Amino acid sequence: MSFTSPTGDVMLPTRYLLPALASLALALAQPPQQQRDLKLEKVEDPTLPAKLSGHSYAVVVGISQYPNLPADKQLQFAERDAQSIYTILISPEGGNFKAENVKLLTGAQATLAAMKSRIDTWLPSVAQDDDRVLIYFAGHGFMYRGKGYLAPSDFKLDQAGTTGYPMDELGAVIGSRIHAKWKILLTDACHSGAISPEDTQTLNQTLSTLNASLFSLTASRDREQSFESPDLQGGHGVFTYYVVKGLEGEADYSHDGKVTADELSEYVHTQVRDATKGQQNPTSDRGSFDANMWLSFVPSAAAPATPPAPQFGSLIFTANTDGVEVFVDNKSIGVVPKGKPFAVPGLAPGQHTVKGVKMGYEPDGPRQETVYPGTDSAVTIKILIPRHRDKAATDALDKGIEYYQKGGAANYKKAAEQLEKAFQLDPTYSQAAYYLGLTYSALFDEDKGQQYYKKAIEIDPDYLEAHANYAGMLLDIGDVDEAIRQVNIVLQRQPDHGVALTMLAQAYRLKELYRQSIDAARKAIRLTPKDAEPHLWLGDSLRLTGELADAQSEYQQYLALSNFDSHLAGQLNYYVLGSLFGMGKKHHAGTRDIWKELRSLALFGLCDCQYLQKQYDLAIGYCQKSLTYNSKDPFAHYALGLSFMHKAVDTGNIADLGPALVHFQEVLAINPDMDEAKLAQQNILTIQNALQRH
């Protein structure tokens, strides 16, 4: 006869156990897997329009390269388009979707199986009657034997019926299986003349009539192509470029702070038609959706004003040097290449504020430029004057950095004094503000950390390290969505930014988006193979998806690469998450060491991997070593308690119950409010009863 624990673990037959341990095997309380995670997240914005009381979910797909299609059928910018849609959807001044509720599939990830999993299975499983659902697709669409198909990345033209995503299936899912108040379909599928005009006509008709209950906006009308252009902020599909501009607020004709379906449809149709000289005309069925449906929330655009003239204009930027980031109305429009015209079309007539910035130089602007209806207006950005730094300020910065790199609370405080002095001497010293952000983050003064990161970015908006490190600060305080947005700012400008990819892996791990975390961590490792931290987040996400052998390898890699003097930790810009390590309680920096915390987490991960594989002696060894770095980690104590308890059950050695009892009691002493504390309490009572019977 064998026994099974409440979590499904099979125990040894009772004839191999002491009588007290036989009942213990039945009573053992434990969670199925150790998370070592207390999620701290900000609540949703209470100022959102009251018309939508539910949640928002989206699937965003972009495919540029098709391995099974010929060279002339490849696209350039579909994946960039998908990334832009993703960014505006998760922006608080935009779609206001939570990041974990937007599934992004790009390139080779966007297989038929993945699309079906996200659209056919995931969306119907999560969407409720009061929710908002959006599906975006940028890639190829094809007709095959009279039926329309969206082309996943593994699409084969001669097997379209089995490798394409059927349009009628999409219609059935949206129409009957997804239960949501508002449904939005944005498709940019008829690219580059890949199908005949007749098939384009049929495909567009199919897209525009999938179901009468949704807002469907397609990139072109019957018999038309949809175009891509390298001149739109570094390259975009024309349709998606204007969809994003519209959602950013340009389509808010009523100036009420919301972009409705009607407004977006009107704006996109007008802009795309003008940009392509009438060759491409987006279409939507005006009578098929709720007139109150809003797609984007842009409170900064809300103002009592006369709606702009219906005809828009453009600003054409040129810069005198490379690496100049240009802002229009305080929004980045991208990095302008030296001497190459950079078009920003679709701007409302009137005055717009423009500014060009480059780190280490005085900005050009802000200044006013006028947009005239139907006119391209040239704007020259000149970056000429290097910023002059006061010697006393630079000396103070150098001293501050020196103290910061030594690590430890006392040195961080000295660093803050010197860096504050540098910033007071030169209020435009973005590097001083940046290091103040790092320093106060290390001191766990989140308010001052945020304050100085924001100042560094305000002074130098193209300060990518400040954006990336600010993301680390946001992760520490639980604002994971905003952290992801800051990381996206970096990756849109520099896709191979290793620190940003590491932050993204960390953010996705906190969101429990483990596959995305794994992808981001592996990209970071390819770029910076000697950097320890991405191995840690990769190991954690692999462990939490059950890939234990690979997880153990990554934890070991992290430990090997971070095996240095802990005093060097300040140089590595590691981030300690309150949600991972503080368990809801703040600790003074003097009692904690970032390097030790991360070592502790890696060893805990190894402990949990061994525990899940029922290797209890190995688990005990790793968790005990984890506690040498962080003796107040309740998760490690809890895992140790479980490991000793299971070992007692396996071996029949009741002596192992003593250490189990001690570690469960430590959990209660450290954090009695965590979920595991309740289970620890149950196990304490079970052990005490077993010991009394023995």
Structure description:
This protein has 694 residues and is α/β, with parallel strands linked by helices. Among the domains are: 14-36 and 579-693, Tetratricopeptide repeat domain (Serine Threonine Protein Phosphatase 5, Tetratricopeptide repeat, Alpha Horseshoe), CATH 1.25.40.10; 56-229, Rossmann fold (3-Layer(aba) Sandwich), CATH 3.40.50; 313-381, Immunoglobulin-like, CATH 2.60.40. The strands form six sheets. Strands 2-1-3-7-8-12 form a six-stranded mixed beta sheet, sandwiched between helices. Strands 16-15-18-19 form a four-stranded antiparallel beta sheet, with no helix packed on it. A hairpin with a 6-residue loop joins strand 9 (228-229) and strand 10. The longest helix is centred in the C-terminal third of the chain and has 19 residues, at 594-612.
